[in-house]
Amino acid sequence: MPEASPHAYIVDAVRTPVGRRGGALAGVHSADLAAHVLTALVGRTGVDPGAVDDVILGCCDTIGSQAGDVARTAWLVAGLPDHVPGVTIDRQCGSSQQAVHFAAQGVLSGTQDLVVAGGVQNMSAIPISAAMLVGKEYGFSTPFAESPGWRARYGDQEVSQFRSAEMIAERWDIGREAMEEFALASHERARAAIAEGRFEREVVPVPLADGTTFDTDQCPRETSLEKMAALEPLAPGGRITAAVASQICDASSALLVASERAVAGHGLTPRARVHHLSVRGDDPVWMLTGPIRATRHALERTGLTVDDIDLFECNEAFASVVLAWMQELDVPHDKVNVNGGGIALGHPIGATGTRIMATLLAELERTGGRYGLQTMCEGGGQANVTIIERL
């Protein structure tokens, strides 16, 4: 057996700017979108691409331009060595965060030394849940509703992220005004981060077919509480509106995970190490409460407290998800999503995990923090947690 590595290092992390729905990246093929960050990652780290053991990309709705193992296709589209394999994984919103976990686990086991982990999603080209629409042609409209086993366990109740977001708002007594204030802060923080150049280290501009270059996130808005208050709720009498939900968008992101042996052998300079990784499940009907249980588990396993964590990233699928998580764990807002989150920056599902990690890493470096904790809710009532330590 190969010798296990005592650490899994993050050498570098990059992402495209996030394009709004129908925006700058809408016409870019998903394989080309992912290839762009793979090329940039290899170039920035100076690593020999032929030494990479695997390429793991998260992606959901793997049909059309995202079908056929887009991780493998993207590596080849990038012109990189064809002996390097690739695999595409789906843990819903946490797909690329799980890609990091698999990469780190391969390194920590001693079976791999250099692994690229990332994700891609063109939600403009392939709408969210498009795979379910295709499934209707074969007699199944959802992954679970027609299953007798599912119905025997959970009944015929509606299972959706929108219902879950409403249920969370009701259970934790989170009012619409509180969610809109949180959403407004997300936009203000994101716009400030862009203005101050906080994303410059992580963002790799994308040349477009029209000869222009796309270099700035498109989703943050100039908005107000008054504008948000005028929106109709998604469900009659509900509290959730489009203003307090993440935006549909397009992006790709990737990072390089390396063993101690690879760092020394390839002359790499790591930026962080993976201090902890775990994933937990929760009630799939509630669906979006997973980060609460998962974060508690991670803190218990590591012996760390909320006070020990310098920065938190909890994906803003909906404002109610993050506010309930903050409430349960007593996490102060001034340590959470300090450069904005999915409400302002968008949630390109398969790419979000490593998009957030690139941002978290850069912000730890900017502020001099040591530990950053990242988590997100995921379909099926799951949540990944990664704690990284800045070096």
Summarize the model shown.
This protein has 391 residues and is an alpha+beta fold. It is built from 13 helices and 12 strands.
Describe the model.
InterPro entries: Thiolase, Thiolase-like, Thiolase_C, Thiolase_CS, Thiolase_N. Belongs to the thiolase-like superfamily. Thiolase family. It comes from Nocardioides taihuensis. The chain is an alpha+beta fold and 391 residues long. Helices cover 36% and strands 19% of the residues. The chain contains 13 helices and 12 strands. The chain has helices spanning 30-45, 70-77, 95-109, 130-136, 148-154, 161-171, 176-195, 225-229, 260-265, 290-302, 319-329, 342-345, 349-367; strands at 8-15, 19-20, 54-58, 86-89, 114-122, 206-207, 213-214, 249-259, 272-281, 311-314, 371-378, 382-390. The strands form 2 sheets. Strands 1, 2, 3, 4, 5, 8, 9, 10, 11 and 12 form a 10-stranded mixed beta sheet that branches. It has a two-stranded antiparallel sheet with strand order 6-7. A hairpin with a 3-residue loop joins strand 11 (371-378) and strand 12. Helix 10 packs parallel to helix 11 (319-329).
Residue share in β-strands: 15-25%
Major sheet: 10 strands, mixed
Low-confidence stretches: none
Could you give the distance between the termini? Answer: 29 Å
Helix content bin? 25-40%
Order of helices and strands: EEHEHEHEHHHHEEHEHEHEHHHEE
Mean pLDDT: 96
List the helices and strands and how they pair.
Elements: E1 8-15, E2 19-20, H1 30-45, E3 54-58, H2 70-77, E4 86-89, H3 95-109, E5 114-122, H4 130-136, H5 148-154, H6 161-171, H7 176-195, E6 206-207, E7 213-214, H8 225-229, E8 249-259, H9 260-265, E9 272-281, H10 290-302, E10 311-314, H11 319-329, H12 342-345, H13 349-367, E11 371-378, E12 382-390
Parallel strand pairs: 3-4, 3-5, 10-11
Antiparallel strand pairs: 1-8, 1-9, 2-8, 5-8, 6-7, 9-12, 11-12
Helix pairs in contact: 1-2, 3-13, 6-11, 10-11
Protein name: Acetyl-CoA C-acetyltransferase
Domain Thiolase C-terminal: 269-390
Keywords: Acyltransferase, Transferase
